[in-house]
Amino acid sequence: MKTSDSKRKLLAVFAHPDDESFICGGMFAKYASEGVDITLVSATRGEMGRRMGNPPYLNRETMAAAREQELRDACECLGIGKLIFFDIRDKTVEFADEEALTGRIENLIRELEPDVVLTFHEKLGGHPDHCAIGKATTAAFRRSAGKGALYFITFGDAMEHPERYGYTHKDVIKVDVRDHLAAKLASFRAHRCQTEIDEWVWLPDREALAHLGNHEYFLKGNRDAPQRVYHDLF
Ligand SMILES: [Zn+2]
């Protein structure tokens, strides 16, 4: 952990509004509460999302603005201080100019000098947009040759069994987020058009919170990095 004279910084480069909340909202809230400076990139505005509200009140024209606002609200819930959109069309990140996208992220890393860079694993991302932004961010991180550490976000508690994916427990950081589940739930609710259909999100707080896990899992992106503790990204 760094000394208090230099503020710790985290850069997350994701694909869609809601990736940050649904996948690792507890981690953002935890580090924000510790004073970490957080920047989030959303490559797209999620305008091709299948969920249009319940009952539907959005269309392809109104969706981008609605989801942008929802993401801004979610960032407020989680303590994410800076939000950047790359203005790539939803579901087309894999067709974006890879060199230009990588260069853009590399410039951001050089400018911000984050201690931690978070993105999707380019093969385990689970959606073409996720894999594409993960691939570009991984390449950008390597090129920037920065001081920081790279981690891949993972889904639920899948990394309780990393050997299924060719990794070991030494590659996994398990962050305890149990003190930050209220903020995570608030961020789910901020993404209203995506979560209205999920009844559990709107149950009384106590019951809804029981649906959220106490840990979030991150995979080391630079395995040769110095050995760190297994419950903290910094
Ligand atoms: Zn996504």
TrEMBL record:
InterPro entries: GlcNAc_PI_deacetylase-related, LmbE-like_dom_sf
Top-level lineage group: Bacteria
Protein name (database record): LmbE family protein
Species the sequence originates in: Paenibacillus glycinis
